[in-house]
Amino acid sequence: MATLQTVQKIGPVLDLFTAAQPEWGVSEVAAAIDVPRSSAHALLSSLVDTGLLQCRTRGRYRIGWRVIELGETLRGTVDVRSCAAPVIENLVERYGETSHLAVMERWHVLYVDKVVGTHNITVQGARVGARLEAHCTAVGKVLLASLEENELHRYLAGRQLRRHTPSTITNAGALLDALSVARSAGHAYDLGEAVSEVHCVAAPVRDDMGSVVAAVSMSIPVSRFVPRRVEFTRAVMAAARDVSHAVANTNHATPTTTRDVPESGRPALAS
């Protein structure tokens, strides 16, 4: 049991290391994950031994180079991102709206690629590598809708659906109804549920076995979304189908370079 408890704490430790705070000390980690300092030190030492962390001067820890190697391994075995790259680029070229590719990772939405829109007023969107709550995003609803019933109820068990705007779904029953609609329609919406003035539409990407492996979305200011909602929905669904076909037909795709831009004062988040 002690070993299992240790493994369960590794994820929360690694989650602490972000672009905003890339370096942590033992006492800081102990306080953040609520364990004794000796336990935090043991966890950090184990992660250093595996190369996932590196110990710098004065007992400070940062992400280790082993992460780069694992990332390259992932690129070589998962081709969704490389298959999606030209499709979302074309989507932005045609409509000028910020587009994302996202996957589900530990019950959160993980954004793995994006192309920023070309309009003067555009949605900057979630940065690549960001992990957001699933219940308030279009990509999150698409990914949640693909879960088996027992997985979905495990996701909801004891989980508070946090309110971000007046439109956020915070009731489990209402979310299940929304996911049922998304499952039937083949797409999902975020109608100002993460950011009030931003609306989003997303559709699922499937592999050659028909399993949902990712979601494609467009994030659009509400003033442009409302009059063209049907058009945007059809465009995103078509893009997701194109990515699905590429994933099914491609065993090895060439990795692409991560694209991202600095955040600005324009509308953020959402997908």
TrEMBL record:
The answer to keyword DNA-binding applying to this record is: yes
The record's region (Disordered) falls at 247-271
For whether the record's keyword set contains Methyltransferase, the answer is no
Q: Which GO terms describe its molecular function?
A: DNA binding; DNA-binding transcription factor activity
Q: State the superkingdom.
A: Bacteria
Per the UniProt record, one Pfam family is IclR_C
**HTH iclR-type domain sequence ranges:** 4-65
List all Polar residues biased stretches: 247-259
Which InterPro entries does this entry report, sorted A to Z?
A: GAF-like_dom_sf, HTH_MetabolicPath_Reg, Tscrpt_reg_IclR_C, Tscrpt_reg_IclR_N, WH-like_DNA-bd_sf, WH_DNA-bd_sf
* Residue ranges annotated for the IclR-ED domain, each copy included: 66-249
Which SMART domains does the UniProt entry name for this protein? HTH_ICLR
GO biological process terms held by the UniProt record: glycerol metabolic process; negative regulation of DNA-templated transcription
Write out the entry's keywords from A to Z: DNA-binding, Glycerol metabolism, Transcription, Transcription regulation
Q: Which PANTHER family match?
A: HELIX-TURN-HELIX TRANSCRIPTIONAL REGULATOR, ICLR FAMILY, TRANSCRIPTIONAL REGULATOR ICLR
Protein role: May be an activator protein for the gylABX operon.
According to UniProt, the name of this protein is Glycerol operon regulatory protein
